Prior knowledge:
It is a single chain. The protein is of the alpha/beta class. The protein contains 15 helices and 13 strands. It is globular and about 80 Å long.
Amino acid sequence: MPIGSLAxxxxxxxxxxxxxxxxxxxxxxxxxxxxxxxxADAIAAGSFTPLGRQPPPAQLLQNFKNLPAFCRVAAxxxxxxxxxxxxxxxxxxxxxxxxxxxxxxxxxxxxxxNYRGLAxxxxxxxxxxxxxxxxxxxxxxxSFAFNHSEKLIDxxxxxxxxMTLAAKEVIAAFxxxxxxxxxxxxxSTGGKQGLTEAQRFPDDYNGIVEGDPAAFWTHLMxxxxxxxxxxxxxxxSISSTKLxxxxxxxxxxxxxxxxxxxxxxxxxxxxxxxxxxxxxxxSDTSACLTATQVEAVRKLCDGPKNxxxxxxxxxxxxxxxxxxxxxxxxxxxxxxxxxxVLFKNPEWQWQTLNFDRDVELADHAAGSILNAVDPNLExxxxxxxxxxxxxxxxxxxxxxxxxxxYFNRVLENMGGAPKTNDFVRxxxxxxxxxxxxxxxxxxxxxxxVLEKWVEQGIAPDRIIASHRSEGVVxxxxxxxxxxxxxxxxxxxxxxxxxxxxxxxxxxxxxx
Length: 511
């Protein structure tokens, strides 16, 4: 049963809107539907240490020591008989609260509270929340869903929504007033969770940051399996030496397309590199690719296709990402999907995957639960919501082309760019890997950009991002709203973002 008007009236009676912040331990008495508050503790500044199966890194522990005092509320929500959704709500002391709510997402198959995200949000003055999505795990294992359909639903969409509703009521009870604005921040699975909220529960958040989203989950599972399927045969395998050879050739051909040679391909769509130029003229050596290796490279870049119809199942690797390519064995996230969710056979072997019949089977079995690909965002727009999308072009886990495809479907569905730019924008980040890392500018204040858009009406026409090496900024560049790309103005320092313009590659003839 959702948290509704009766619960709101009960909370209002206990904690009037005009009241000062309630004692933290009084949150233990809060009654919410299908919810048990398991603890409500006042945490002194710098005293929090997360519990887990493994000790957190020393740097993360130091970050926790820098946290302000806060009220930590833990709860379990059971919207179904088989649900066990753990959540935590962290709230800074009333004097340090900015009046807003910022929830944070998960990675992989989730299974843990995102303490790092909670800490970062709390430090910025937000009341914040996270959930394990209904099970305990390491993020790489889907065995929790084996014959537990309700737990799969919890992970797919239900847990984030009920966490959001419960967190808002806890916040209202603690401060005596509801958050004036609510934001979401997540990448990978967290990005999918953000899109799920925008599509299914458009009134939950005023602004959503979603990065590198695992949105087309059922097809993504085939996309992540594809490199292992292509490279499992010895003749197709490509050594690290040959990947470096391939990467150099790609960079030599495409690095300068933005006017600057800097080890980053600004616009992979404009890179039309043909790996055949590296094909061996004679015997196989480390300085060339065999004909079968050339074909393997093409398959990896094209992504998986239905062998019967030729239809694309999921996009492939992008030019410039070669040094991060991976092959067999496949990572556990898709393998456990096929074992425990699709085939319900713990002994299933990944080499038997069929890219024809199994795709339709996956869509039918789990698509309505796990996918977040509905391009109709009209209810979210009607709520005056803002959606900030981003994806790294060097992402070799979730192919960046999927974000481009989804964004284009939104444009088509919502009436084109002029009607959509006021509430949704996509920023493709050159050289960035999965959510972070890589040679590109992978660091920018996503939440601040979103806040300015929601609260001040300042839409992001360009975002200044940076890259660090050993803690020192060594690159600063503008990120441009897709389809625009950053192009050097041919004068001034290439380390100064002011010397780059955001241009449409079609209009400039550089695609």
